[in-house]
């Protein structure tokens, strides 16, 4: 259990399946649970970690954008069960890690930073600023896009376990490379 601004957050590595979304075979899937039904946005003063969440009033789904100090991840969650329906790597604060080091992160209760060979040129954001990030739900409230400096950075589209990131070069456990046609059709 971690604390941010006095709010208890629990990191759960999901090792079960629900609703046809099988996360059991994917050790990199992580879900950050918050206990709010309204938008929550803050950066902790002691460690400058971002945390943004919101529940969509149309679909009842929630999203969480969390920065753990090494990496930022976006999650789409069923609100009541807090089960992830999708996730996507957003950025690293550290240089891309060796592929061999990826398997160590779930053992530490953390989602892994992107690995070498998967990261684009802009993949490292050393000091992210809270106000640089905005989000938008799809009209049906089942998909979410995260913007940085008013430009789409990554999105999770309903029905897809892995999201799409502009900072990824290749498909992998962090998500899929950006697909403009999917973005245009969804948002």
Keywords:
5-stranded antiparallel β-sheet; 187 residues; 39% strand; 5-stranded mixed β-sheet; globular; single chain; mainly beta
Description:
The structure is a single chain. With 187 residues, this protein is mainly β. The protein has one domain. It is built from 2 helices and 15 strands. It has helices spanning 104-107, 180-186; strands at residues 2-4, 7-13, 17-18, 21-22, 30-33, 40-43, 50-55, 61-67, 71-78, 84-92, 133-137, 144-148, 151-156, 164-165, 176-177. The strands form 4 sheets. The chain has a 5-stranded antiparallel beta sheet with strand order 6-7-8-9-10, with no helix packed on it. Strand 11 and strand 12 (144-148) form a beta hairpin. The radius of gyration is 15 Å and the shape is globular. The termini are far apart. Mean pLDDT is 80; it is low at 1-39 and 42-46.
Strand order of the largest sheet: 6-7-8-9-10
Largest sheet: 5 strands, antiparallel
Which parts are unreliable, with pLDDT below 50 for 5 consecutive residues or more?
A: 1-39, 42-46
Beta strands, count: 15
Mean of residue pLDDT? 80
- Helical content class: under 10%
How is the secondary structure organized here?
Layout: E1 2-4, E2 7-13, E3 17-18, E4 21-22, E5 30-33, E6 40-43, E7 50-55, E8 61-67, E9 71-78, E10 84-92, H1 104-107, E11 133-137, E12 144-148, E13 151-156, E14 164-165, E15 176-177, H2 180-186
In short:
By secondary structure, the protein is mostly beta strands.
């Amino acid at each position: 259990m971690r604390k941010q601004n006095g709010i208890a957050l629990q990191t759960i590595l999901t090792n079960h399946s629900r609703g046809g979304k099988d996360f059991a075979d994917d050790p990199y899937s992580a879900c950050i649970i918050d206990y709010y039904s309204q938008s929550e946005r803050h950066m902790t003063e002691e460690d400058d970690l971002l945390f943004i969440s919101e529940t969509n009033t149309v679909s009842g789904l929630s999203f969480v954008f969390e920065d753990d100090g090494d990496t930022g991840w976006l999650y789409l969650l069923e609100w009541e069960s807090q089960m992830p329906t999708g996730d996507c790597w957003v950025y690293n604060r550290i240089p891309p890690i060796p592929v061999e080091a990826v398997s160590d992160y779930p053992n530490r209760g953390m989602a892994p930073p992107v690995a070498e060979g998967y990261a684009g040129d802009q993949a490292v954001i050393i000091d992210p600023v809270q106000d640089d990030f905005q989000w938008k739900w799809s009209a049906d409230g089942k998909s979410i896009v995260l913007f940085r400096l008013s430009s789409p950075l990554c999105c999770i589209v309903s029905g897809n376990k892995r999201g799409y990131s502009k900072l990824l070069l290749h498909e992998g456990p962090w998500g899929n490379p950006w697909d403009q046609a999917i973005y245009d059709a969804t948002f």
